[in-house]
Amino acid sequence: MSKTQILRRQFLANVGQTSPSPMLVEVERAEGVFFYTPEGKRYFDLVSGVSVSNVGHANRDVIEAVKNQAERYMHIMVYGEMVERPQVEYAVEIAEALPAPLESVYFLNSGAEAVEGALKLAKRYTGRTEMISMRRAYHGSTHGAMSMMGEPEGEEWKNAFRPLLPDCKALDFNSFDDLSQITEKTACVLCEPVQGEAGVRPPKEGYLQALRKRCSEVGALLIFDEIQTGMGRTGEMFACQKYGVTPDIITLAKAFGGGMPLGAFVSSKEIMDSLQENPTLGHITTFGGHPVCCAAGLAAFRYLKKHNIVADVERKGALYEELLKNHPAVLEIRRSGLLLAVELGSEERLFRTMELFKEEGILSDWFLYCATAFRISPPLVISDDEIRESVAIIRRVLDKLS
Ligand SMILES: Cc1ncc(COP(=O)(O)O)c(C=O)c1O
């Protein structure tokens, strides 16, 4: 048995599995928009670890930052007690980049944890219990975040794990009529400004503004989950800037850590300070804001700014759309910046496409609530030549569908 075969067997036997049919592609190394197997097969990464690798794989600035910080110090003490330079510097730069009054950054390890923290903060600050989310939302896989996967679609994912949090309900994303269900009882409304796992659903004109207005009228906190849309993915550093709507709390993760595990929820200082008392230590974490992760995230954030990467994201996304939209197999392209869902109309066609992608060296994926469309969300640093080359492969695969 070859070394690769042994490793695969061990992977299946000893690494906890989340699906009965994992891809089983071994990764040897990754660089830019590509990763490679031990046999030297190259894959175009059109997923970016689900919107994580925005600055590309093996980004030199991120690697240097990780090395330097790991040599200086790693974990010292539970979160929030020590002054750690990478955390402080990153918080300052994120606060500068976000619209006021979003200035106080609570660091955690992941997206789901950021959502948990944000929900608790909203309950604590408002003294209310009702929490509202959107249908076809995804906010993470912990009990609280999972409770916010709206019904009826979310039921498929969460039903086996009930009982979940009480006092949660879901609205139709983009329904102006549903906004009246947000009332004085509502602690918060949690919403992705562009729904990701629903299969890339951007907001209707004026919807996020109307949502903001309703929340303000009744004193409910508006939480934007920018875990997938943040750090440049939609063509602005944060989608809230693209749509000109400032939430009370924003959650970040994925690309926020520059490839390392890091999440955060950010609010005004006034709101955040409510976690300090009654009870004190309102939210605690051992590893949240790990100095090596913060150093990596900060290096990635600075890289995006220094090279003006985000300014080109909309044009690159439009180029993908332009080059793919006239293929007869493509029914629709839904897009925000470099987050695209290419609609094929049937699961059968989608799964056949995935098989062919694997053979041809393309890594794509479908969406939790949409198994008829494939995802294109490459590292934001992808070049025009790489876009054209990946499109040529995609079109060749789609040609084989008919
Ligand atoms: C919008 C959104 N929120 C939250 C999460 C959960 O993040 P994590 O997997 O880091 O817990 C995801 C993950 O896909 C996401 O897309």
CATH class membership of the largest domain:
Alpha Beta
How much helix is in the residues?
Answer: 25-40%
Q: Class by helix and strand content?
A: alpha/beta
CATH superfamily of the largest domain: Type I PLP-dependent aspartate aminotransferase-like (Major domain)
Number of beta strands:
14
Largest sheet: 7 strands, mixed
Strand order of the largest sheet: 4-10-9-8-7-5-6
Summarize the structure.
This protein is globular. The chain has 14 helices and 14 strands. The protein has helices at about 5-15, 50, 60-70, 85-95, 110-125, 145, 155-160, 205-220, 240-245, 270, 290-305, 315-325, 345-360, 385-400; strands at about 30, 35, 40-45, 105-110, 130-135, 170, 185-190, 220-225, 250, 265, 330-335, 340-345, 360-365, 375.
Note down, in words, how this protein is organized.
The chain has 402 residues and is an alpha/beta fold. The chain has two domains: 3-54 and 309-399, Aspartate Aminotransferase, domain 1 (Alpha-Beta Complex); 60-306, 3-Layer(aba) Sandwich (Aspartate Aminotransferase, domain 2). Helix content is 36%, strand content 15%. The chain has 14 helices and 14 strands. The strands form three sheets. It has a seven-stranded mixed beta sheet with strand order 4-10-9-8-7-5-6, sandwiched between helices. A four-stranded mixed beta sheet has the order 1-2-3-13. Strand 2 (34-36) and strand 3 (42-45) form a beta hairpin. Helix 3 (60-72) packs antiparallel against helix 11 (291-306), helix 4 (85-97) runs parallel beside helix 11 (291-306) and helix 12 (313-324) packs parallel to helix 14. The longest helix is centred in the first third of the chain and has 16 residues, at 111-126. The mean pLDDT is 97.
